[in-house]
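Quick one: structure for this chain?
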Amino acid sequence: MRGWWWKCTGVVLLAYVLFFGLWIPLKPAISGVDVDGKLRARSGDTVVKLHIQGVNTFFRSATPQVILKKDSICFVAKKVYAYAGNDNLYADFVLKLGSAAPEQLMLNVITWDSLHGFMEFDNALALEHAQSDSSEHTRVTKNPLSAFPNVAFSGLTFPYRSILEESIRNLLFHVPQWFSMIILLLVAAIYSAMYLHNGKLEHDAVASGFTTIAVLSGVLGTLTGSAWARATWNAWWTSDPKLNGVAVGLAMYIAYLILRASLDDRHNRARLAAVYNLFVFPVFIALIVIMPRLSAVSLHPGSGDTVNFRQYDMDNTLRMFFYPAVIGWTLLYVWMATLSIRINKLSLKKALKS
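Got it. Here's what it folds into:
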């Protein structure tokens, strides 16, 4: 059992990530806002009915307050009611609308209740011709949000993002594949350099084993990334600097495997493979890390003009599972690489005996 502790650690970490990563719900949030209708009242006011759609919310169990807000301008809902499930909330606003307002207001919808605290949906409603007086239900000069205590939702949840939604869980599966691949390829490059230094075929066997499993990790990373792109960008693949760099880099390492399979002499194969490995590794890092960051425009987070996941999507709950996922996947692939190395060494011993 002396050599099994790290293998068991990897299995336990992956079981932990797989179970809780799929079981933990998303944080309650507003997923959409629709204008349900406008009715002209006798007084000349306009009743604007909003339909607010939530995710993992409990609107029927709470007593929400709904506010339309933009900078110092606030409109308080006259009536709020929930029916048709916990994820549907309706709010009526009584507004005085003029006929010659100078500009259009893009208002955010903010809800507050004792269960969820504050939830906000940006640019939910475009309001035209709002009069600038201070009537009872129209314009509020004092910020009503200051009257509500800041309540944090209790419970273990993942962050909700309007574009990612449930696919944010793929962060625990897609991103660790590339972390693992880079680690495996770094080890393979080190052993390739060691082979060129001392000519031991055992070092070539280690380099070959780690590179083979790294390619498997890259293929799984590409597949999970393609599925994520379909869920968020509505396309399996796009002409993005990050994605194109991944495709070229993965093709170079597949060419490495083809090169090894095309040579019969073990020393020639090991020598060419080692030189090729040392040449390709820095090029691969440049293609998937450096070049995408230097590009002007990109869809992939952390590339071009996009923000990094650490700035936008990561929170303390995701970190509890992301870092164990990186360690768990890496340990699993190292285990697989050791099995591939044992096969390579057994094949080498058999060839030397014959």
